[in-house]
Design a protein that fits this description.
By secondary structure, the chain is mostly beta strands. It is 0% helix and 54% strand.
């Protein structure tokens, strides 16, 4: 299974970006997909997840600003609005196909300038 994240870039505070993550190599849809991020000098942290049933969950720091979604081809999206400098990080997508069957994309850099 391969995941490819894209859509990162440089944006000013208050701006928006939309991240995408395409998945390939599986004949099954993923059980859950998510976005995580890692800021310089910090550990990777949870951002948002979505289940096969469409249930979503968000980190408190992004609630009301970010929206996770998926389409029928199992492409994951993360719409990020009202971006803040503290959102600056490498964003990674994740897809879970079963127990101990997680896959990660390589990450896309988001830089928010003040």
């Amino acid at each position: 299974v391969q995941l490819q994240a894209s859509g990162g870039g440089l944006v000013r505070a208050g701006g928006s970006l939309r991240l995408s993550c395409t998945t390939s190599g599986s004949t099954f849809r993923f059980i859950a997909g998510g976005w995580y991020r890692q800021a310089p000098g910090k550990q990777r942290e949870f951002v948002a997840t979505i289940t096969s049933g469409g249930k979503t969950n968000y980190a408190d720091s992004v609630k009301g600003r970010f929206t996770i979604s998926r389409d029928s081809r199992d492409t994951l999206y993360l719409q990020m609005n009202s971006l803040k400098p503290e959102d600056t990080a490498v964003y990674y997508c994740n897809a879970r196909y079963g127990v101990l069957n997680d896959h990660w994309g390589k990450g896309t850099l988001v830089t928010v300038s003040s």
